[in-house]
Fold DUF4293 family protein.
Amino acid sequence: MLHDERILKHKFAYFFTIIFVLCWMIFFAYNMVNIFLRGYGLKEEYNTFKIIIYVLYFLILPLLTVTFVSIFKESKKMFFYLNLSLFFMLIFHVVIFNGKYQKIQNPSTGYVFSFILLNILLVVGPVVLINYFKHIPTENEIENIGKHKE
C-alpha cells in the first residue's frame, strides 16, 4: 500500500472502521433474517411504519456492505457510503423510536435523552471519528522547491 493511496491516517482507524461497519452489518443482517426468513415479523407497535422500516433495511445493509468492501479496496467513496448509511440509520432509529414512544403510557424526558445519547455514542460519534481520521495527502514538497506562497 502506497503512502498516498491510503484513505485513513492510522492502522487503528482502519481497525475501528472495519469493526464498526461489521457490527452494524451483523445487526441489520440478523434482524433481516429474523423478519424475512424466519417469519418473526415486526412487533405490533411498528405496524404503522412497516413499509418504511422494510425499505430502510434494504437500503442500509447494502450500503454498509459496499462501505465494508470499499474499506479494503482503499476507495475514497467509502466516506460517501458511510455517511449515507449514517443518514439512513438515523432515520431508521427515529422511526423505531417513534413506534416505541407512541406505545409508552408515561412518556418521560429521560427516554428521549437516553435515545439521543445512545445514538450519539453508538452511531454518530464513531462516524464522526472515522471522518476525522480521513487521510488527506500533503502536497509533494520536492515539486514545490523554489515556489513561494506569499
About this structure: The two ends are 35 Å apart (CA to CA). Residues 11-132 form one domain. The chain has a mean pLDDT of 84. The chain is about 70% helix and 0% strand.
